[in-house]
């Protein structure tokens, strides 16, 4: 297990501190509400105690409770996923403007 202490800062300034890491899981001694990540992961700053790493678009994969600790995983959203979301949004907008049901 990684011995560094991490801090995550979400887009609205919410800080989740005193985190350890196991693989790609961040581990918090307290309970983490998955709702704090909703629409709040662009950008995300991950600090490892020495350096800030800025991730422009992230997504919460899961939050799991293990032995009274919250384990959670974040992932970067790929450029392809962002492009697909934009295309879908554009199509839905055009359909709405043309009064077409999809």
Shape: elongated
How many domains make up the 3D coordinates? Answer: 1
Order of SSEs = EEEEEEEH
* Strand content range: 35-45%
Structural class: alpha+beta
Number of helices: 1
**CATH architectural designation:** Beta Barrel
Q: Do you know the CATH topology?
A: Thrombin, subunit H
Average residue-wise pLDDT: 93
Rounded to the nearest angstrom, the radius of gyration is: 17 Å
Biggest β-sheet description: 7 strands, antiparallel
Number of strands: 7
Note the gap between the termini: 49 Å
* Share in helix: 10-25%
Q: Unreliable segments (pLDDT under 50, ≥5 consecutive)?
A: none
Q: For the record, what CATH class applies?
A: Mainly Beta
Order of strands, widest sheet = 5-4-1-2-3-7-6
Descriptive account of the structure:
The structure is a single chain. The protein is α+β, with helices and mostly antiparallel strands and 102 residues long. The protein has a single domain (2-77), classed as Thrombin, subunit H. The chain has one helix and seven strands, in the order E-E-E-E-E-E-E-H. It has one helix spanning 79-97; strands at 2-9, 15-22, 25-28, 44-47, 52-55, 58-66, 69-76. Strands 5-4-1-2-3-7-6 form a seven-stranded antiparallel sheet, with no helix packed on it. The longest helix has 19 residues, at 79-97. It is elongated and about 55 Å long.
Summarize the SSE layout with pairings.
Layout: E1 2-9, E2 15-22, E3 25-28, E4 44-47, E5 52-55, E6 58-66, E7 69-76, H1 79-97
Can you tag this structure with a few keywords?
single chain, 102 residues, alpha+beta, Thrombin, subunit H, 1 helix, elongated
């Amino acid at each position: 297990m990684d011995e560094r202490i991490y801090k995550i800062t979400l887009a609205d300034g919410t800080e989740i501190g005193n985190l350890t890491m196991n693989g790609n899981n961040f581990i918090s001694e307290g309970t983490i509400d998955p709702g704090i990540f909703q629409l709040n992961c662009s950008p995300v700053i991950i600090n490892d105690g020495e350096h800030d790493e800025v991730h422009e678009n992230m997504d919460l994969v899961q939050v799991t409770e293990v032995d009274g600790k919250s384990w959670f995983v974040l992932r970067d959203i790929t450029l392809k996923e962002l492009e697909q979301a934009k295309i879908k949004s554009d199509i839905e907008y055009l359909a709405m403007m043309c009064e077409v049901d999809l």
